[in-house]
Amino acid sequence: MKRPSVERRPFGTAPGGEAVALFALTSREGLTAAVMSYGATVTSLRAPDRRGRLGEVVLGHDSLEGYLASPRVYLGTTVGRYANRIARGELPLEGRTFSLARNDGENHLHGGSRGFDKVVWAADAAETSAGVAVVFRHRSPDGDEGYPGALSVEVSYTLTDAGELVMDAAATTDAVTVCNLAHHGYFNLDQPARRDVLGHLLRIGADRFTPVGPGLIPTGELRHVGGTPMDFRTPTAIGARLGSADPQLVLAGGYDHNWVVAEGVGAGGVPGGLRSVARLIGLEAGRTMEVLTTEPGLQFYSGNFLDGSVVGRGGWAYQRHAALCLETQHFPDSPHQPGFPSTVLRPGETYRTTTVYRLGVER
């Protein structure tokens, strides 16, 4: 066994002149991770395969310059103030409509042109009873990307001695606003960049999903997954139905949809705590990853827009389906959908969310 450790080192300078720090974490069992203060980003996560060999399981870059050159990919970043899309960049709230940055066609995506993924967070290493961690802090001012209210955010990433990467986040506001944070990690449990994820087996514990229309904006319907390519209630190869003529897959160019893993949950947190919502298996290396969360939604994105133009770690060009995202979140476009769980956060309330990526091995 290794001694848990966190080491901090410089990692370049952000466009605004702020110094960026990189933290290297090692768990008692030998898992490693790296996180940087630009975008509160997980740049690396290494876990053993069925033979005990440590290997990379997320996409990333070797330098800060790589992240700055591919801002629309969100490799490993923390996205907010609102993860996913808000239609037309319009935020209806308390009888007013706020105009948000439109950075995805006519829609608002992942917090806007300069969301939380593109700022330098204050960062400190920490040791907890569960493992080693880095705690990030950021204050988003009133009017940031069009959002009302100043939002104070704290996000921590912990590498536990139980083989987990844990994201915990909390936020408070001084005026009514919305809050919906997510980790945008790209996972490949076999060989990132050398193998695609189409052979990975995925289980999602959800009976319904939120179908989308143009611009990948939800229609408001909660549709049953039965008889559709969205049915992952039993482990299914990601590529098994990816090429079907299902209108939802055609519209999104693959999977880029939200599954309903819980309902009726507001921005203040989920009663009942963590629950398992998904499990991923990389058959070649034998690695597994279980996803547990307090969030009501899970966005499964099959890397449809990777096209080889992003050159990542080790000089590998990331091709289509090189990795996948399992983003725990509130539902996309919730401010326009009264039937979706609310993302409204008010003064005196605290937004909280926890997601666990639990790594293991299947022999």
Explain the layout of strands and helices.
Layout lengths: L4 E9 L5 E8 L5 E5 L4 E8 L5 E3 L7 H6 L7 E3 L5 E2 L3 E4 L2 E4 L8 E2 L12 E6 L3 E10 L10 E10 L3 E10 L3 E2 L3 E3 L16 E4 L3 E3 L12 E2 L11 E2 L9 H6 L3 E5 L14 E7 L5 E7 L3 E5 L23 E5 L14 E2 L5 E11 L2
Antiparallel strand pairs: 1-2, 2-3, 3-4, 4-5, 6-16, 7-10, 8-9, 11-12, 12-13, 13-14, 14-27, 15-26, 17-20, 17-22, 18-19, 18-21, 21-24, 22-23, 23-27, 24-25
Characterization of this structure:
The structure is a single chain. The protein is mostly beta strands and 363 residues long. The protein has a single domain (5-361), classed as Beta-galactosidase, Chain A, domain 5 (Distorted Sandwich), CATH 2.70.98.10. Helices cover 3% and strands 39% of the residues. The chain has 2 helices and 27 strands. It has helices at 64-69, 247-252; strands spanning 5-13, 19-26, 32-36, 41-48, 54-56, 77-79, 85-86, 90-93, 96-99, 108-109, 122-127, 131-140, 151-160, 164-173, 177-178, 182-184, 201-204, 208-210, 223-224, 236-237, 256-260, 275-281, 287-293, 297-301, 325-329, 344-345, 351-361. The strands form 7 sheets. It has a 9-stranded antiparallel beta sheet with strand order 11-12-13-14-27-23-22-17-20, with no helix packed on it. A 5-stranded antiparallel beta sheet has the order 1-2-3-4-5, with no helix packed on it. Strand 4 and strand 5 form a beta hairpin. The longest helix has 6 residues, at 64-69. The mean pLDDT is 95.
